[in-house]
Write a structure and sequence with these properties.
7-stranded mixed beta sheet; Maf protein; alpha/beta
Length: 205
């Protein structure tokens, strides 16, 4: 049995990464109230903020997959959500150019985390996991100021958590990475590839 595969995300980065695994999938955006879910989970936060952040991305990914599967009952649905965590703060998508500039400036010279939660759902089965990468940006200087100003003005930061895409100009500000690079782009595709095959094996039994 080869069920229809649906990616519950309109992210062009996730779409391109999933194509490494299969060309045969559809795109359907999932409408959920992300802010309400975030507020609920943050109200009951753990002492370790990273633990709370993991719960959040897993819940968001799971809800996205569930919404799409509800109207595509026989499909295998992949939901994903990515957040950027700096200290005990979640950096979402910037509201404007100034916000994008300030977010990246906050990240400069500091170490932050990128977490992507993934949910794979088929009928009554769900497999979900979270991937965590650690990134350090170079310290702020005049060159970075010029580059960040141009990047924020370009509008490229607008649809990205933490106001940057590592595959774009922001890659110039990265001092080091620990973990999966593709996770930072938006989908830990190597891990997803293995978990997706495991799910397909279960379905075909």
């Amino acid at each position: 049995m080869n069920p229809k595969i649906i990616l519950a995300s309109q992210s062009p980065r996730r779409r391109e990464l999933l194509k490494l695994v299969t060309e045969n999938f559809e795109i359907q955006a999932a409408e959920i109230d992300e802010k309400r879910i975030e507020n609920e989970i943050l109200q009951n936060r753990e002492d370790d903020f990273l633990v709370t952040s993991k719960k959040l991305v897993l819940e968001l990914a799971s809800r996205k997959a569930a919404v799409v599967q509800k109207i595509n009952k026989k499909a295998l649905v992949i939901g994903a959500d990515t957040i950027v965590v700096l200290n005990d703060k979640i950096l979402g998508k910037p509201v404007d150019e100034v916000d994008a500039y300030n977010m990246i400036k906050q990240l400069s010279g500091n170490t932050h985390y990128v977490l992507t939660g993934v949910s794979i759902r088929f009928e009554g089965i769900e497999d979900r996991f979270v991937s965590v990468s650690q990134i350090k940006f170079y310290k702020w200087n005049q060159q970075m100021k010029r580059e960040v100003s141009a990047y924020a003005a370009s509008g490229k930061a607008n649809d990205k958590a933490g106001a940057y895409g590592i595959q774009e100009e922001a890659g110039l500000w990265v001092k080091w990475i620990k973990g999966d690079y593709n996770n930072i782009v938006g989908l830990p595709i190597a891990k997803l590839n293995k978990r997706l095959q495991k799910m397909l094996d279960i379905i075909s039994q």
